[in-house]
Amino acid sequence: MKKILVTGGLGFIGSHTVVELQNEGFEVVIIDDLSNTSIGVLDKITEITGIKPDFHQIDLRVKSEVKNFFENNKVDGIIHFAAFKAVGESMHKPLDYYENNLGTLVYLLQEMRDRKLDNFIFSSSCTVYGQADELPITEKAPVKTAESVYGNTKQIGEEILRDASKAHDLNIIALRYFNPIGAHPTVKIGELPLGVPQNLIPFVTQTAAGMRKELSVFGDDYDTQDGTAIRDYIHVVDLAKAHIAALKRLISKRNKQNFEFFNVGSGTGSSVLEVIKAFEKASGKPLNYKIVGRREGDITAAFADTTIANKELNWKTEKSLDEALESAWKWQQAQN
Ligand code: WQD
């Protein structure tokens, strides 16, 4: 049985990926520092799959702890989620973001180099494209100067991976996520935003649950059909499955270069107002919202051309926006 390390494995996307790995017969070991999640997620994963993953509470910024882990754990692959991911916060704490998102990446790669480990999956983001010149966005679209420190850590992370894979013959895939939303159909795991949600869907569900007075729609003067910004919302379970597909590609040595990257989205763009309308339908509840000014750093539109990912990963999304919103609403209700 192949043993896979999942860093950040108790987080939103990490926990859903651990479930899919276990469903596929992989042995999973999780590293998480619990800075943005709770240990209770480990029990929830165990409830879903019946298998309790091995868990180590480790701060990957502590090089000696990383070394010690690998002294005692031989793994056949690594899926690296652990990172800070709040776009706004990253602008006020750049050094924390560079240390946590990149320092830890280097430590993991050094262990892979020194112990001849292989098969690394990196959590990247469509934010590397900025506002793409052409839509839908293909992997050929140029990477643009990041609008945020967070986005820059993803860009620099990919550069580090490119260089390390070439110099040390490591096999690495970066998955450029579009907008992950929703929750597991068992309603046992989902998104647990700390404090005021920065992302659209948790703010929508908390508004519908009466925890927020109303949703502020950041701008309706964009050059889109209804004036609100367009994004590619992908169900977190579909996103989790893309990681399994990428891991299998590396393990079976089907990758064509040492370093590869794929756009992982649904391929469909939805505006904020369209999401609101779909949520009202999915939840059966009218949503309180008001139009306000644009949020700094936001782009007009982004949605994926999924041709390459569909073909090379033999993967495509199976769940609709409505299903994702329904699962997000069920998850929110379970929290209250
Ligand atoms: C979506 C749309 C907002 C909140 C970011 C990161 C990306 C990834 C996902 C980590 C935009 C609008 C939002 C609100 C609103 N993060 N909105 N009112 O900005 O596309 O992507 O999160 O990996 O890397 O860049 O996602 O959910 O914040 O916003 O009107 O209260 O909803 O303007 O158009 P975004 P988002």
Task: Please describe what this structure looks like.
- This protein is an alpha/beta fold and 336 residues long.
- The protein has a domain at 3-184 and 234-265: Rossmann fold (3-Layer(aba) Sandwich).
- Helix content is 41%, strand content 16%.
- It has a seven-stranded parallel β-sheet, sandwiched between helices. A two-stranded parallel ribbon has the order 7-10.
- Helix 3 runs parallel beside helix 5 (94-115) and helix 9 (272-283) crosses helix 11.
- The longest helix is centred in the N-terminal third of the chain and has 22 residues, at 94-115.
- The chain starts with a strand and ends with a helix.
- The model has no long low-confidence stretch (mean pLDDT 97).
- Bound molecules: UDP-4-deoxy-4-formamido-beta-L-arabinopyranose.
- UDP-4-deoxy-4-formamido-beta-L-arabinopyranose binds at residues 85, 87, 125, 127, 179, 198-200, 203, 215-218, 229, 231, 272, 295, 298.
Small-molecule binders here are: UDP-4-deoxy-4-formamido-beta-L-arabinopyranose
Q: What's the CATH architecture of the domain at 3-184 and 234-265?
A: 3-Layer(aba) Sandwich
- Principal-axes geometry comes out as globular
State the CATH topology of the domain at 3-184 and 234-265: Rossmann fold
The major β-sheet equals: 7 strands, parallel
Instruction: Just give the CATH class of the domain at 3-184 and 234-265.
Output: Alpha Beta
Q: What oligomeric state best describes the polypeptide chains here?
A: single chain
The named CATH superfamily of the domain at 3-184 and 234-265: NAD(P)-binding Rossmann-like Domain
> How much of the sequence is in beta strands?
15-25%
- Helix count equals 11
* Secondary-structure content class: alpha/beta
